[in-house]
Amino acid sequence: MKKWFKSIVVVTLLSGSLLTGCNPVESSETADGKTEIVLSGWGGNPTEAKLLQQTIRDFEKKHPDIKVKHDVIADQYMDVLKTRLIGGTGPDVFYLDAFEAPGLIESGVLEPLDKYVTKDFDVNDFEKPMLQAFQHNGKTYGFPKDYSTLALFYNKKMLEKAGVEVPKTWDELQEAAKKLTKDSVYGLGITPELARLYFLSESKGGQVMTDNKASFASKEVEEGLQSIIDMRLKDKSAAQPNEAGADSGIEMFGQGKAALVLEGNWTIPYLSDTFPNVSYGTAEVPAIEGKNNTMAFTVAYVMNKESKHKEAAWKLIKYLTGKEGMKTWTSKGYALPTRKSVAEELGFADDSLRGPLVSGASYATVWQDGPYLPIAFTNFNNQFLSAFLGDQPLREALEKAQKQANKEIRINE
Questions:
Q1: Which partner for 34 in 30, 111, 118, 361 could form a disulfide, CB atoms 3.0-4.6 Å apart?
Q2: In this predicted model, what pLDDT tens digit does every residue of 287-303 receive, in sequence order?
Q3: Which of 3.40.50.360, 3.40.50.11540, 3.40.190.10, 3.40.50.450 would CATH assign to domain 151-295+369-412?
Q4: Which residues span the membrane (predicted)?
Q5: Contact between 366 and 206 (Cβ < 8 Å)
Q6: What is the CATH number of domain 3-148+297-366?
Q7: Where are the chain's structural domains?
Q8: 278 half-sphere exposure, CB direction, 13 A CA radius
Q9: Which pTM value belongs to this model?
Q10: Cβ contacts of 140 within 8 Å, gap of 6 or more
Q11: Which residues does 174 contact at the CB level (< 8 Å), separation at least 6?
């Protein structure tokens, strides 16, 4: 079992108390003889909570012999979950972000699901990049419940006033951002972190991680990221949210302080609720050197290898990620369905706003790159931000970040 996985629990136990909210929730038999299984996940907004509860109720109606206990881990989700898993009190089924999946798969705590799959489940219906995020060495350890890609959100009135067409290439984006920057409005609002810029960092042939080591201090990665640095420091056409008095890219966009932003599906309900008067559209992320790419963020349902009720746990996963359950869960558009058939049935594929997000799913780069990306991610962000602000050259920032990341990776191997 990986050192990084065990260390969380050791530190927790030595501290003399478990993490907040870490009271174990164990599955059991109910008084009326039903099999009770525990489903753990993080919380969502009220609408998402209602949709999940409805989906669970529908499952229980179809499987009257199974009772689902929904356990919400409000804080420090992965720390709490890992503590429970290694302590033998983990849930039967739980959420797993693709970002964390490689590490948890390597730790050996997940049940491979391939042997449970039957023909009626239609595995080929899933968007391929999302499914592959939970596969390793020919085995499938989770089925993705939803996802979001990034798309280009643009302010229609600002583009029209500036006489700017929606950019289709990255060069066009840079030129459009310059023309749109005026009167305290930035052309591009950008969050300078690896999760948003990963696809850009690899667009010139470089690799963020190689053989589970950070490798982003390369000429190719530097070249891929240089455009963002140039837009911030040379063109003055890009800024991060706090430079415009905003807390996020979508707030910056909603307040009219950025004409363009790269954001996900979550932006659509947010703008509808918070900035309903903004006239905007979406487009696929502009192509770089003729190639389309974007980021994808996805979460799967996975099974605890130590579950005492694996058949019941699989039935729940099968329903939640099956066509019927997924349709209910994603029906309001807060999350996009990973099944292509469900996206088509709900009309998301042809929707004027969500269509570009759905189109990106087939070619997206999933936010995931081995078990040590979380370490590399933290070090990258710390140094890249200083380069973005002009405090040090990009090459120097990448070299510092890579050196420190690999030092920490060696400790955790």
A1: 30
A2: 999 999 999 999 999 99
A3: 3.40.190.10
A4: none
A5: no
A6: 3.40.190.10
A7: 3-148+297-366, 151-295+369-412
A8: 28
A9: 0.91
A10: 112, 113, 114, 117, 123, 131, 134
A11: 227, 230, 231, 235, 237
